[in-house]
Amino acid sequence: MFKGKAFWYLLMAGSLGGWVFAIVGRIKPIENETLKKIWKGIFNGWVYGHPLELAIAFMIGKARGLSMARIICKTLAFGFTLWLPLKLGVFKK
């Protein structure tokens, strides 16, 4: 399962969906308390978590020959769903 590209592409799509949810919730505040708690968790995870992953992504991305700009952009968008499959050898570049 972790070696299949389709699995990682699905998780990448989920990451982009998380960004959409985080941004929409920031623009149009959520009224439902349960949904607001979920939004806060996703917002904080995406906004603070993805930049923290850059240190790991730099090491793995550089070893795979990725440019610094590509590592930064893709890590901020996809988080671990970029660098973990690179580390596992699912994606070559």
Describe this structure in words.
- This protein is mainly alpha-helical.
- Helices cover 78% and strands 0% of the residues.
- The protein has helices at residues 5-27, 33-52, 54-63, 68-78, 80-88.
- The longest helix is centred in the N-terminal third of the chain and has 23 residues, at 5-27.
Shape: elongated
Number-wise, the strands total 0
- Radius of gyration based on Cα positions: 15 Å
Distance between the termini: 19 Å
Number of helices: 5
Q: What share of the residues does DSSP label as strand, in percent?
A: under 5%
What profile does the largest beta sheet have? Answer: none
Mean pLDDT: 92
Which blocks of ≥5 consecutive residues have pLDDT under 50? none
Percentage of residues in helical conformation: over 70%
Structural class: mainly alpha
Q: What is the ordering of alpha helices and beta strands?
A: HHHHH
